[in-house]
Design brief:
single chain; Outer membrane lipoprotein wza fold like; wza like fold; 18 strands; SLBB_dom
Length: 368
Amino acid sequence: MDCKRLGATLAFALTLSGCVWAPGQHLRSSALARDDQPVGNDQIELIQITPKLIAMDRASRDVPALPRALTSYHPGQYQIGVGDILYITVWDHPELTVPAGPQQQLNAAGRLVQSDGTLFYPYIGKIPAAGKTPGELRDEITSKLARVIEAPQVDVSMLTYASQRVWVTGASRQAATVPLTVTPLTLGDAISQSGLDPAQADLSGVRLTREGVTYTIDLDRLGRQGGGATNVFLKANDHLYVPYLDRKEIFVVGEVNQPGAMSFKTSDISLSQALGRARGLQQSTSNGNAVYVIRGSSDLQSAPSSVFQLEAKSPAAFAVASQFELLPGDVVFVGAAGVTRWSRFVNQLLPFTSIISNAASARNDLDN
């Protein structure tokens, strides 16, 4: 192969390399849309990361107040239900309190509320119990026992709670049910009692489903604003779902020391934290002005994807990066420096030139 042919091959390869998007030079759309049509520049928006942008972003991400439908609910007194077990004490009458004598176990002395909402008690028979508070049931038993016992003193307490509960599923060691008791149950109480796995749980996207309506609650942010914000009282049959962290990832690629996917437990992670987890930029190969955050759009026809650029050559830029919050699914891309791109291109091209040279030599040998 003569020098002219090799020179033409190099020129053609260099022409092809100029068609590839190289971060740090300029941003050009090269992906394909869902309908296999080229993505135009109007479908990708390049935005500089500045203090003004961060202020606007923070204002749009303020945690909304909890819906009034949740905060306005305050449970009343506990109402007895089917499956509950009650312990009924009649003072000075142990034969009614513990019929089998002192050797009887406490649980065996309990009174079960049957499926029809009633329980049986000596000298009275069946008593409707479901829907009444322990105090209301005590007054009724006292009134009816007064016919056979002079001035009875009765106490009704809950032995086992079984009729009202909430469900907690998702990132817990096992699906759990938390009973409602005479003490009102809050959202924070249910989370803490459910045996949540702290290494897998994403508290920034807890979903509470009540009467067919699902509310998404950022417990992480609310907790940082003050513990009182999480005191949402729960109702019977509420369902809590705590998502897993593996659905909450960002991706750091390009000229960093440790690229890869990263999950985060809190409701947010900053750009500087993401670069820190990736062990920083590669000093010898990275372009400090080519740090991009690529944020896709779910519908390119209605809204463009956003690409945010950080000019990280200045130390002050990392102060800005520490305030820029990433979203799940964001891709942080660090581009290569110009010399690095040229070096890689040459390294990729040399094997091809060797093949071409060998083929040309073989052809010359055949011609001779």
